[in-house]
Amino acid sequence: MREIHHFIGGKSVAGSTGRWGDVYNPSTGEVQARVQFANAAEVGQAVAKAAEAQREWAAMNPQRRARVLFKFKDLVEAEMESLAELLSSEHGKVIADAKGDIIRGLEVIEFACGVPHLMKGEYTESAGPGIDVFSMRQPLGVVAGISPFNFPAMIPMWFMGMAIATGNALVLKPSEKDPSVPVRLAELWKEAGLPDGVMQVVHGDKEAVDALLHHDEIRAVTFVGSSDIAHYIARTCTEQGKRFQAMGGAKNHGIIMPDADMDQVVKDIVGAAFGSAGERCMALPVAVPVGKKTADEFVARMMEAAQGLNLGVSTDPDAHYGPVVSAAHKKRIEDYIQMGIDEGAELKLDGRGFELQGHETGFFIGPTIFDHVKPGMKSYHDEIFGPVLQVVRADNLEEAAALPSQHQYGNGVAIFTRNGLAAREFAAKVNVGMVGINVPIPVPVAYHSFGGWKRSAFTDTNQYGTEGIRFFTKIKTVTQRWPSGDIGDQAFVIPTMG
Ligand code: NAD
C-alpha cells in the first residue's frame, strides 16, 4: 500500500503516531493509499522548522522571492499532465477539470509574482515640519493553511502564492481525502529554490488542526472548508488572538429571467450544476426561473441536457463528470435526495442507483433534478454538494432575488438576462459576495479577490488579490525627523502637525 508522508524541513518525514487515513480511488471505490495523521508534537516540529526558515526568507528581497515563484510556475506547468492524473485519481474529477483546478491555482501564483510592487508601502513627505511618514508591509511569520478536498491544487496554491511571496513560512494541512498533490507541490517548491522549511505539509484530522490553532508561533490561519468547521476556526483563532480567514460552504442560485438566452442558460447551468459532480463551492445547485413559461421551458430543456450527460471514471476523456469523493459523501447526497422527496419537492430525474458498468463499486451518482422546491425545505436550506439541481420557481425578479439574499449562504449568485438595468440593480442589491451576470461560476480572477458573505465566510479579508496581500502582511508606520541640531522645547501635549 502506497504511504503518503508529511513534508517537513524540505524532506519526506514518516510520522510516528500510528494513525492513518484511507485515500480512495473514487472511480473504483478502492483504497489506493494511506496517509499519516500528525499529532501536536509532529505539528510542533514543522512549526519550529518554519520559524527558523522564515527569518531568512523574509530577509530576501521581494524580487528574488518572486523569482522562486516564477520558477515554481514553470515546474508545475511542465508537470501538468501527471499532476492532473494524480489529482483526478484521488478526487474523482475528470482530467480536464483537474487541469482547471491546477491552472486556477497557478493564476494566483502568477499574480503573486508581482509581490515587489504589491508590498510597497505609502510615503508622505513633510507631514509636519521636517517630518516624513512612511508605511511598510511586513510578513506575519509562520502561518497555517487548512484546505478542503474539492480543490486539492487550487486552494493550497491560493495560500502558497500569497503567504510565501509576502515572506511568510506556510504550514499546510491539506484535506486527508486527496493529500498527494499538495505534497508534490511542496517538492516542486523545493526544486524551484524555496529554502527548506518555508513550505511544509503536515497531514491529519482535527488533532493536527487543533495543534496548529493552539500553537503560539502560528500568527495567522487561512481556512477553506465547510461552514461549521470554518466557524470553529474563526472562534478558536479569535480566542487565541490569531488573524484568520475562514471560508465556508455555499448554495449558489442562478436566476433566469424571461428574456434570457435559453440555449446559453441550459449550457451554462448543466455545467455549473453537474460539473465536478457538484462538488464546487461555486457550483450552481439552485435554479430560479422567473415566470411559469420560463420555468416550464427551463425544466424541460434541463431534463434533456442532463439525460445526455456521460458519467465516467475520472480518466475517461468523454466523461462530463466523474464519481463523488467518498462512499460516505455519496450516501449523504442520496439521503438529501430522499429528504427532498419526503419534503414534497417533485423529483424529475433521480441519479440514485446509477452504476457504471465495470465500476459498480465506484462512488457515482447520476444527475438529479428537483422541481417545485420551496424555501422552507431543509434540503433547500442545506448545502448538498453533489450533482443535484433544485428548481425554485419565482413569479418576478423581486421574489427571485430575495431567495439568495435571504439564504444562510452567500457565496456566489448568477443572473441570466438581456436587460442590463435589471442585472445592474440585482448586482448592487443582492446580499451575496460574488455575482455573475450571464456568468454561471463567477470565481473572480486572481487580481481581484474571492470571498462570500454570511455563513460562506467568517472573515472580513477575502482570499488572494490585494486582499490576500493585506491578510498575510502587517503594516508598520514610521514617523521620522532628522533634527537640524537646534534643540526643541520640551513638549507635554500630544504633538500635532500644526
Ligand atoms: P471540511 O470542512 O470537512 O474539511 C476542510 C478541512 O478541515 C480539511 O482539511 C479537514 O481535515 C479539516 N477538518 C475536518 N473536520 C474538522 C474538525 N472537526 N476540526 C478541525 N478541522 C477539521 O470540508 P471538505 O468536505 O473537505 O470540503 C467541502 C466544503 O468546503 C464544502 O462545504 C464547500 O462548500 C467548502 N468550500 C468552500 C470554499 C469557499 O471558498 N467558500 C471553497 C471550496 C470548498
TrEMBL record:
It comes from Hyphobacterium vulgare. The keyword Secreted does not apply. The lineage of its organism: Bacteria, Pseudomonadati, Pseudomonadota, Alphaproteobacteria, Maricaulales. It is an enzyme of class 1 (oxidoreductase). Its EC number is 1.2.1.-. The keyword Oxidoreductase applies. CDD domains: ALDH_F6_MMSDH (cd07085). Keywords: Oxidoreductase. It comes from the Bacteria. One of its GO terms (molecular function) is oxidoreductase activity. This is CoA-acylating methylmalonate-semialdehyde dehydrogenase. Residues 21-478 form the Aldehyde dehydrogenase domain.
